[in-house]
Amino acid sequence: MSGSIHRRGILAAAAAVAFAATVVAAPPATARPLERGTFVDGFSFTDENFCDAGIAVEVEATQEVRFLFNSRKPGTAPYWTANVWETVVYTNVAGDSVTELTRLVDKDLAITDNGDGTLTILVLATGNTTVSDESGTAIARNPGQVRYELLIDHNGTPEDPSDDQFIDFLGLVKESTGRTDDFCAAVLPILG
């Protein structure tokens, strides 16, 4: 798996977690927007084997998400749409860094009631990722889209997401389209 596809996978997983966090607070379904809002989240960790190169890199991310949770038809599972702005800074022990900026739309394309108390949700994430060096010069890009699936337990109420439980990230259905620069090849000369 190339580094840029891996990064999109991390972003998709973060969006899946954001989805799971908001379904707990959503009100019962009606034929109008159920909930809309904005939240800001972040995380940081040290990757001890960054890009499989055996180097330690500190990863710090912030994410702003503007979302809409909407029922398309009364009595059915509601759909999620979000605009996501994410900034990830990768810094090595010497203090060198690169910044990854991602702007994307993340939205449910199809929701399938599996008949066993679960929903399979097909999600589209489309947008642009740009990786820049410390001077602000773009060194890698990944515009395009991916599609992935989530598995959700609807607890007997597919139209009411307030009791839903995230079960699993089922994986990519469609790999990244468009230009896909190799993330690790672009950043290792700076961070390695």
TrEMBL record:
Signal peptide: 1-25
Keywords: Signal
Superkingdom in the source lineage: Bacteria
Protein name: Uncharacterized protein
Organism (species): Agromyces kandeliae
